[in-house]
Amino acid sequence: MKLGKHQKTIVAVLGEVITFGTAATTLLLTVQRQWHPAAAVVTVILGVLGIVKTLYTALTGNPAPTLSIGTVTTGETAAAQIRGDAPRHVLDLVLPRTVPQPKT
Fold first, then answer.
1. Domain boundaries, the chain
2. pLDDT tens digit string along 23-65?
3. Residue 3's CB: how many other CB atoms inside 10 A?
4. Closest CA to 101 of 40, 33, 29, 27
């Protein structure tokens, strides 16, 4: 099968998709059940960013900006903030506190 000039991009995107799936599975298996929604959101954000980064690099020929995880804290409501200057950005997250519900 010949994919032409886009072969490297297709292979790289598939690699990102596999990495995303592995990270999502690992994260959801290791965090407590009450954190599953927050873990899923974080995993989806990072997965999408990985795929977009690969496509950006392939289409423009320039290295893509980077996004690393900064501080992760708990608070009353969920929040996210991106800080830093191009090409290096940092994602700070606030995960909502949850009150454990009694088991019935």
1. 4-96
2. 777 767 777 777 777 777 877 777 777 777 777 777 777 776 7
3. 10
4. 33
